[in-house]
Amino acid sequence: MPISLSSGQTKSTVIQEAASLTIKAEKVDSWQGKDVFHYVLDNGEMQVEMTNFGGIISRIIVPDKNGKLENVVLALEEIPDYFTKNGPYLGAAVGRYANRIGGAAFTLEGETYQVTKNNGENTLHGGKEGFGVKVWEPEVYKKEDAVGVKMTYLSVDGEEGFPGNLETILYMELTADNELKLRFESTTDKKTIVNLTNHSYFNLNGINGDVRDHELQIFADAITPTGSGQIPTGEIKPVSGTAFDFQTPKNLGTQLDALGEGFDHNYVTKRANSSELKKIAIVKHPASGRVMSVFSTAPGVQLYTANHVRNFAGADGKTYQPHWALCLEPEGWPDSPNKPSFPSTSLAPGEKYVHESVYEFDTEY
């Protein structure tokens, strides 16, 4: 059930309550003439903080095996900090096209589109001003077993070079079962491409050092290897017997040492598009007992180990360094518009793009 929220609201207010499920909303600033809110979703065991600026998840606060509550995502101190200081896309909804498009160009129905170059000769995460720096129109809602925020953004025809007026609705909700559920829905009035995800950086030890002591399992038997500019070659390469192999649980530090560099690779969780919500990864931090399971309908997931986050001033007086977090970004495969053999990321009028992801938190003793 949606609930109206006054744009003039300035005090922190409990908008809805269902059993132990609550939402608090506070107007914290404005950006480009639009109100920016900070939301706190609470189910009595964990909290998720978010904002309608960039569809950003700003904090996820979960207990360890002893009940100690800590934030487990890299964050900035205050919501207005995200306006100009979020170069790494911390917690952001990224689009129109998550990941890279080679040469910042693609062809649809015989017409070539040049999109914004912001990653060398390529485009990354939608260009210079992608979805992660837009103010989304928010509306809080509740269900019997969840509370959430519905966010809507209209990306106009030609924005960052992409064709079509693309309307996207993002549902972000916390359930009574410690699940953070994200659902993107997009429609267009002209054939276009779309590939959306959330870019949270996870560290289950409470952001107390790097994630080398984490255990990771990814349910994928292949990656799409990359060449120059981290653009896929078009190959699908098995991971068995390599440093990329997380088919069984592996210590992340051991795999980083074997690779000799950080991870920034797309794992093949499906070889074709489907609506099946599939478990794609499990992350564990043995010392704290925290466990995160990831589910998605997307055909791939980008594993990124914060390789380029260096001397970055984060929340709570902490300075983030490489490998202080890992991203698991469920999404379509990189450069799919230029790789006909990859699962399609095109969207036509009358069709609906739907992408669901679930982050489930638990403890293990």
Report on this model:
- This protein is mainly beta.
- Helices cover 3% and strands 43% of the residues.
- The protein is built from 2 helices and 31 strands.
- The protein has helices spanning 82-85, 252-259; strands spanning 2-3, 13-18, 21-31, 34-42, 47-51, 56-63, 69-71, 92-94, 100-101, 105-108, 111-114, 123-124, 137-142, 146-155, 166-175, 179-188, 192-193, 197-199, 215-218, 222-223, 237-238, 250-251, 264-268, 278-285, 290-296, 300-304, 312-313, 319-320, 327-331, 346-347, 353-363.
- The strands form 9 sheets. Strands 1-13-14-15-16-31-25-24-19-22 form a 10-stranded antiparallel β-sheet. A 6-stranded antiparallel β-sheet has the order 2-3-4-5-6-7, with no helix packed on it.
- β10 and β11 (111-114) form a beta hairpin.
- The radius of gyration is 19 Å and the shape is globular.
- The two termini are 37 Å apart.
- The model is unreliable at 1-12 (pLDDT under 50).
Radius of gyration: 19 Å
| Main sheet properties | 10 strands, antiparallel
Report low-confidence residues grouped into runs of 5 or more.
1-12
Task: Provide the spatial order of strands within the biggest beta sheet.
Answer: 1-13-14-15-16-31-25-24-19-22
What's the tally of helices? Answer: 2
Into which percent range does the helicity of residues fall?
under 10%
**What is the CA–CA distance across the termini?**
37 Å
Number of strands: 31
Q: Would you tell me the structural class of the helices and strands?
A: mainly beta
Q: What's the overall geometry?
A: globular
Strand content: 35-45%
* Average of pLDDT: 95
